Amino acid sequence: MSYALIRYQRDPDHNRRGWLDLESFARATGTHPDLVTRFVALGLLDPERDRAGALWFAPDQLARLARMQRLRAAFSVNYAALGLVLDLLDRVDQLERALRRSQRQPWR
After folding, report:
1. Residue 108's CB: how many other CB atoms inside 10 A?
2. Which Pfam families match (predicted)?
3. Whether 27 and 65 share a structural domain
4. Which of 10, 20, 80, 104 has the most CB atoms lying inside 10 A of its own CB?
5. What does pTM read for this prediction?
């Protein structure tokens, strides 16, 4: 199964560039808003809330949800394990970036 690249649109009423409200985020990812809210409750997504309490999602959350969908579809990772797998993948990514930086600066 493959996932199309996701385009996001800037909300003109919101002052953050590229941030999406719950409905727009759910529509962009092909996910029901209730499931997105559940992911937030489980700590799998990290939106911000405005003064009215509405959820706003940064553009990097689109990639995070796409990664979650790939893990679920390809490896049948359940929701309980998604957080752990995502944390481990983030940690691997950080270590790889640190290794590349150290290889570019051998004299430090």
Report:
1. 6
2. MerR_2 (PF13591)
3. yes
4. 20
5. 0.72
